[in-house]
Amino acid sequence: MQDDVLPSGATIGILGGGQLGRMLALAAARLGMRTHVFEPSDAPCAGQVCDRVTRAKYDDVQALQRFARSVDVITYEFENVDLNAVDGVADLVPVRPGRRALEISQDRLLEKNFLNGLSIPTAAYWNVESAADLGDALEHLAGPGIVKTRRFGYDGKGQVRVAGAGDTDTAWTALAAAPSVLEGFVTFEREISVIAARGLDGSVVAYDPGENVHEDGILRTTTVPARIKPSESQDAVLTAGRILNALDYVGVIGVEFFVTGNGLVVNEFAPRVHNSGHWTQAACLIDQFEMHVRAICGWPLGDGSRHSDAVMTNLLGDEIFAAPAETGTAVHVYGKAEALPGRKMGHLIRTTPRQ
Amino acid sequence: MQDDVLPSGATIGILGGGQLGRMLALAAARLGMRTHVFEPSDAPCAGQVCDRVTRAKYDDVQALQRFARSVDVITYEFENVDLNAVDGVADLVPVRPGRRALEISQDRLLEKNFLNGLSIPTAAYWNVESAADLGDALEHLAGPGIVKTRRFGYDGKGQVRVAGAGDTDTAWTALAAAPSVLEGFVTFEREISVIAARGLDGSVVAYDPGENVHEDGILRTTTVPARIKPSESQDAVLTAGRILNALDYVGVIGVEFFVTGNGLVVNEFAPRVHNSGHWTQAACLIDQFEMHVRAICGWPLGDGSRHSDAVMTNLLGDEIFAAPAETGTAVHVYGKAEALPGRKMGHLIRTTPRQ
């Protein structure tokens, strides 16, 4: 083994203690790795399955540094980690996927600039720092669009649809005057995503693209294979690879695309394991969680080929209580205490032989 | 859900904290279950992934009763649990697979009697309580055989091969005069095993039989499919089902067979998840560990059909250190501190598309 390969028994630090952290911890345990979760909130669901939990705020530099000294590598389950927090530990222990991926993916303007710098198509977009900016941008756009805050949006939050310049003031108020981006509305046939990984040695693997259906801004189902042309599938995988290489990335990434009559358009990417990759747990030898653990520990990437077709369905709120009755289906339950409406509580994966 | 269905969030008590308990705890976590491991030894590897560990001896009735009061169901990862311990908790909480399966499987004489009572073929056998018994039995056998202690044998321990009556005294001394069984030597083409499960509602599922290769009494590989006739495969599965029903069993069982020119002969069964069922982790939608958890929690059994062919290889002692280099292969590492020679440290599963 090389020096930068972490052996079984090493400890992975995970920033964030939600279901993604939980499933990372379970995958790490399969490989004999220990996990230490850092999470501000009480009783994180990842805490049930990891070795150790530090409960502290993300801007508690001292707690973060103690945490960093107790682990061999740090990763994160969500992209809104404070960059100052990362900078405070990066000289103590490797942080993977890495600072640049975080910085870019947590700011929609940087993300769009980065993608366009790679000549990867995105929606038309304008930087919006004031109501006046938004009014000007909407006149340029001359059609419907979506204003999104640059930072801290997820599951459809921090977004307002606009029909034209007449909506300027309403939209700006709804977004609380936060720095934003106006995006032109993309007419698409369907939404797909690619889950891909890059190893410490620069090797890249990608799972087959999945087709996503959202409801109320929240992912409802991912179906694999997606109903797309082979050329579109290849384009999606190659685009994910270009993003990974450009970021000198280590770990799993989720890249969301719109499939349009003029080809693929990237919606956004997430520098972490991704809800639309949960299907890999039941349909691939090495799932996205283990793939991420392998990558950040310097192990060879695993076999991501699909042995089965799959439909993943998120279980939201009290849908979780019906889960045990589903036969012929894999169920994952996140162990969250309260089944609040719309809250991701678990997921189902129905598999069928690969067609 | 019925009253006897344990919901996600319930706690499973596991007697024994080795790798089988560890993988049961990880499977339970996928379903949102909590786990509490009871184990006499220090730092059990299952303790790294469960919610809680009680360190106490199996005959510590008070500790066992405290343990029982903290869980919703008790199961075990090995069959040599003291029956008195089980009796001390059985009125507090359900113990599954159940007392009778334990009692029979931990005593080779009771096991053989039970199987023969079901007209299931076994090796010829004689009860041996003294050197004189052994001498008489060897004269009846009139050929080579194996003397095995009735209790506490595993991985080839507590067994002595004998060529004939002349070996009586040597064998009896080697077994420390423990109550034993003489078994006639079975000439077999290969060894197979069936992993099967029975639910609380009496439904039964079985995985496809695997072909086992042992070295020095320790399982080395399991290959699926086994090289057997369809009629032998069916016979093996039906036999496992008869054993499950006769024991009013709840959970996963492992049944080992010799394949002979005259059909199948049962070697033994284990009332628990089984090393020869680890291949299901990579080749089936629901693996043996989750199947066991589903059964003992009263959930519907899962889909045990095989989507891939598989070869499982145990990693013994320092073989574990080569594990990360294997690509195209799933690896499981048990997190044990010391890689002692012959110790089961992890396993590999190589899969190929189902033929």
Task: Walk me through the structure.
The structure is a homodimer of 355-residue chains. Chain A has 355 residues and is of the alpha+beta class. In chain A, 26% of the residues lie in helices and 29% in strands. Chain A contains 10 helices and 17 strands. Chain A has helices spanning 19-30, 61-69, 83-87, 99-105, 108-117, 131-141, 168-174, 230-246, 280-283, 288-296, and strands spanning 11-15, 34-39, 52-55, 73-76, 125-128, 145-149, 159-162, 180-184, 190-198, 204-206, 210-215, 218-224, 251-260, 263-270, 308-316, 329-333, 344-353. In chain A, the strands form 3 sheets. In chain A, strands 9, 10, 11, 12, 13, 14, 15, 16 and 17 form a 9-stranded antiparallel beta sheet that branches. Chain A has a 4-stranded parallel beta sheet with strand order 3-2-1-4, sandwiched between helices. A 4-stranded antiparallel beta sheet of chain A has the order 5-8-6-7, sandwiched between helices. Chain A is globular, with a radius of gyration of 20 Å. Chain A starts with 10 loop residues before the first strand and ends with a strand. At the A-B interface, helix 1, strand 16 and strand 17 of A face helix 1, strand 16 and strand 17 of B.
Features:
17 strands; homodimer; alpha+beta; 355 residues; nine-stranded antiparallel β-sheet; four-stranded parallel β-sheet
Mean pLDDT of chain A: 93
- Major β-sheet profile of chain A: 9 strands, antiparallel
Which stretches of chain A are poorly predicted, pLDDT < 50 over at least 5 residues?
none
Could you tell me how far the N terminus lies from the C terminus of chain A, measured between alpha carbons in angstroms? Answer: 38 Å
Task: List how many beta strands of chain A DSSP finds.
Answer: 17
Instruction: List SSEs of chain A in N-to-C order.
Output: EHEEHEHHHEHEEHEEEEEHEEHHEEE
